[in-house]
Amino acid sequence: PDCIVTATNEVYITLEALEADTAHEIAFNQILIPGTDSVFYAGDTTSSLTLRINPGTSQTTFRFFYEDTEFDSLVVSYSRQTKMISPKCGAFNYFQDLAVVSSSFHEVIVKNPQLISGGTTNITIKL
What is the average pLDDT across 52-56? Predict the structure, then answer.
């Protein structure tokens, strides 16, 4: 078989207006993942985000600093399954069962609980 790999540790997030199903652009100061020194979307204005989960754990916390907020947080959990594509391609970790553990946002909706490459929305945040 071809070595087509859809495994990823990226979560695709869309931001929508609270009262409508329309894209809502937010000016971010930064997005942080506690326990790492990575800074994401510093100074960016966007309505869609791609953030990486920690593949070595079963949950990841994201802290969103934007506009006049101190910060909002989102904690997600997931499970990992290793799948062998073929002996030639090898094994890859697939992340699934994405769920919201806690959030300070008004509303968070899991649209697709499996992380796959290609930009399919996993989570929608209403704000």
Answer: 93
